[in-house]
Amino acid sequence: MKSALKHFRQTLNRTLALVLLASLPTALRAQSKPILIQPEIQYQRLDGFGVTVGNGSAKELMALPVAEKTRLLDLVFGNDGARANIVRSEISWKGQRLQMTHPLYLRGFMYYFADEENETAQFNLLREALKRGEVLWNSCVWTPPPQWKNNQAPEGRGELLPKHYEDFATYLAAYIEFYKKLRFQDVQVVSLQNAPLNAQAAAGGNPD
Asked: Does residue 52 contact residue 4 with C-beta atoms inside 8 Å?
């Protein structure tokens, strides 16, 4: 719980620091040179600021006492707080493959994700964030299902085997469909890898 709270507070502090810096009078800032603004040139679109709720942090946060949880969510997502508008969640590799006789399978679903506690906690946190404003949901792959990797490891390094590319694509499509049709929530962004350019992070547990 402490690690999750620390992560949220660090994000909040960085956001507030940027706001305070922008509001300082010119005389208090470092000596600056003239700034050339060229709105016709766009290098990167900025969709907003957000927080990551993977690695079990959402489960810890949603288990907080009601008053403490409400205050924390207000500070991060509320109009009087940091107004974070992006939630980056972890796509669980523990999705349950449905049997052909399962009622949901007969309705066209192949996987079920509601039984995974971290996944459900992330969704509950997202719903709380949506009560406070518009939020973009970015679901990210920490690791594919281990049975499709070359090292069969649920965490740590390892590569998705080419023969399972289609299986994993079906899995991700099923994840999006599950949320859209059963939880009535759109997944706006799907990231196929966590921290793809961070070699040190990849060595510590992110998928290759």
From this structure: no
Cβ proximity of 129 and 87 under 8 Å: yes
Q: What angle do CA 180, 207, 188 make, to 5 degrees?
A: 25
Are the C-beta atoms of 168 and 146 separated by less than 8 Å? no
CB-count burial class (<10 Å; 0-12, 13-18, 19+) for 95: buried
Res. 201: pLDDT tops 70: no
159 neighbors 143 (Cβ within 8 angstroms): no
Please report which confidence band the pLDDT of residue 200 belongs to, taking 50, 70 and 90 as the band edges: very low
| pLDDT band, very low/low/confident/very high, at 194 (cuts 50, 70, 90) | confident
* 139 vs 68: CA distance, rounded Å: 26
Contacts for 63 with CB less than 8 Å, ≥ 6 apart: 1
Residue 54: name the closest of 93, 83, 15 by CA.
93
The DSSP string of 83-131 is ---EEEEEE-S-PEEPPTTSHHHHTT--EE-TT-HHHHHHHHHHHHHHT
| DSSP one-letter code for 47 | -
CB count within 10 Å of CB 201 equals 12
